[in-house]
Design a protein that fits this description.
heterodimer, A: 293 residues, alpha+beta, Phosphorylase Kinase, domain 1, Transferase(Phosphotransferase), domain 1, 2 domains, 5-stranded antiparallel beta sheet, 3-stranded antiparallel beta sheet, 10 strands, B: 271 residues, mainly alpha, Cyclin A, domain 1, disordered C terminus, transcription regulation (chain B), Cyclin-like domain-containing protein (chain B), transcription (chain B), nucleus (chain B)
Chain lengths: 293, 271
């Protein structure tokens, strides 16, 4: 505990505050996530515990490294590798212009981290620009696994307080309770578009109904032909019938291959969305560079 | 997490050999025999099962909790933390790691008390002696000693795959499944990869049901000596259980590992 000195607060995670800190023994800069433990209640909070035990198993260059866990007085410190900023802050600093080679590289790295998670049967479930870290070298690291889960386990829908709506897939928004890897692909597609549009969020809904409306306006209102089973999910409510927009208006800065990949990721029917592995094989990534090099 | 046992912390850090386990138990072996340590472990594995059943936890969560318990005492003396404190802590930690929802504190302590009352009052009196803050403190020690390796692989899933090859699978599966459950009474779960344990339990079930499996096992590309060694240990467990009278021996064994006062960790733990 003594060997880490907090330098500056760098953010609020899904749970707990994150600090930049220095390890006095090694001089290494790390990120410290402070989790309060309320001993009257459940002890180590279960999402902190989930994050710890998943990151212990997930070792990949595009996933943030877990270094250590330290028990303090009524708090738990989770020590991670330090990254300069999250993707949201990175985008904000770009002021509306992100180089196509960066869009390509970041999306590629994001998919590599995701493919690795999925190969371990882990869903991230909370892919947002705030949960993606960018190092000074332009390396992308997936972070914040507090909501991550093994797949195949039915769960209730996300509560709106926890996860930003904007990256939530239409099937989840419509109340599907059995997720698979496709929900992470939808989120990644949203971020792909956001990067290509200079950091402009693709689907900034105000609430669940508005979010669905925005999605349907762009991708068309689904029906049984394009998404078997969707009428069951949509039966409780009336949705206006939209035709899909031309993709050129949605992601005007992507080249033809980029547009094609984007469409494969943003299929409304989750069973037809491409996988991270398939996305990585796409011709759009031919000649992709790692980081800024 | 099911797909990658070979890349897991379970494989890289927690498949122990016999010498490692004995070295970790050196202190306990100065006043207990190997056989006595085995009996104490079996006693508390059953305690964990009873508590898990009362809390309606899945078999896999119970198995994970037993593995935590065994991992802890493979590196620490039975006198470092009282097993009666550690056993419920393992259940608590396993229930979080296995995503089975949060167990309410009051319900948890009630379950501990009820298990002691219903099944163990002759050993521990009528009350569970530890309060929640102590269990929660213990939870952290457990997490630390396990080095955050909370994801444990079990033989159940591999068994379901292997048994598909057998014609008489309806008879074999329950028997092999029970053998896996029983194998947690031993150190097998500390020593061998889950798929080997699954095969050994299937092998045991074939022996019990007199099903000829020689050909099937001969065609496997696994170390058969290792496999038969695990089978031998499971069969030996069943032999022992035929005559073992736990209630006759356990009280004096528990006295041997009793802590001076109250039974909290004694500061010798972790440095």
């Amino acid at each position: 505990m003594e060997s880490y000195e907090k330098l500056v607060k760098i953010g609020e995670g899904t749970y707990g505050t994150v600090y930049k800190a220095v390890n006095h023994d090694t001089g290494e800069i790390v990120a410290l996530k402070k989790v309060r433990i309320d001993d009257e209640n459940e002890g180590i909070p279960s999402f902190a515990l989930r994050e710890i035990c998943l990151l212990k198993e997930l070792k990949h260059k595009n996933i943030v490294m877990l270094y250590d866990v330290i028990h303090g007085n009524k708090e738990l410190m989770i020590v991670f590798e330090y990254c300069d900023q999250d993707l949201k802050r990175y985008c904000d600093a770009c002021q509306g212009k992100i180089d196509p080679s960066i869009v390509q590289s970041f999306t590629n790295q994001l998919l590599q981290g995701l493919a690795y998670c999925h190969s371990h049967h882990i869903l991230h479930r909370d892919i947002t620009p705030q949960n993606i870290l960018v190092t000074g070298n332009g390396d992308i690291k997936l972070a914040d696994f507090g909501l991550a889960r093994n797949f195949g386990i039915p769960v209730k829908s996300f509560s709106a307080e926890v996860v930003t709506l904007w990256y939530r897939s239409p099937d989840v928004l419509l109340g599907a309770t059995l997720y698979d890897t496709s929900i992470d692909i939808w989120s990644t597609g949203c971020i792909f578009a956001e990067l290509s549009n200079g950091g402009q969020p693709l689907l900034p809904g105000k609430d669940v109904a508005d979010q669905l409306k925005i999605i349907f306006k762009i991708f068309g209102t689904p029906n049984e032909q394009i998404w078997p089973g969707v009428s069951q999910l949509m039966k409780d409510k009336d949705y206006p019938s939209y035709n899909a927009m031309s993709i050129l208006h949605v992601v005007p800065n992507l080249n033809q291959l980029g547009c094609d990949l984007f469409q494969l990721m943003m299929v409304l029917d989750p069973s037809k969305r491409c996988t991270a592995e398939q996305a990585l094989q796409h011709a759009y990534f031919k000649g992709v560079s790692e980081g800024y090099t | 997490m099911a797909a990658n046992f070979w890349k897991s912390s379970h494989y890289s850090q927690w498949v122990l050999d016999r010498q490692e386990i004995l070295a970790g138990r050196e202190e306990d072996l100065s006043y207990l025999s190997e056989d006595e340590i085995f009996k104490i472990h079996m006693f508390f594995a059953n305690f964990i099962r009873h508590l898990g059943d009362l809390l309606k936890l899945r078999q896999q969560v119970i198995a994970t909790a037993i593995v935590y318990f065994k991992r802890f005492y493979s590196r620490n003396s039975l006198k470092s933390i009282a097993p009666l404190l550690l056993a419920p802590t393992c259940i608590l930690l396993a229930s979080k790691a296995e995503e089975c929802g949060i167990i309410n504190t009051g319900r948890f302590i009630n379950a501990c008390t009820n298990v002691v009352k219903q099944k163990y009052s002759s050993y521990f009196g009528s009350d569970y002696p530890y309060k929640m803050p102590v269990i929660l403190e213990c939870e952290f020690f457990l997490l630390e000693l396990l080095d955050c390796s909370l994801i444990v692989f079990h033989p159940y899933r591999p068994l379901l795959q292997f048994v598909e090859d057998f014609e008489k699978k309806d008879a074999l599966l329950p028997c092999a499944w029970r053998a896996i459950n029983d194998s947690y009474n031993t150190d097998i779960c500390l020593m061998y990869p889950p798929y080997i344990i699954a095969l050994a339990c299937l092998h045991t079930a074939c022996i019990i049901q007199s099903i000829d499996c020689t050909q099937w096992f001969a065609e496997l590309s696994v170390d058969l000596d290792l496999l038969f060694e695990v089978t031998r240990q499971i069969v030996a467990l069943y032999e022992l259980l035929k005559t073992y009278e736990e209630s006759a021996e356990m009280k004096s064994l528990l006295d041997k590992i009793a802590l001076p006062k109250g039974g909290r960790y004694d500061g010798k733990l972790m440095k």
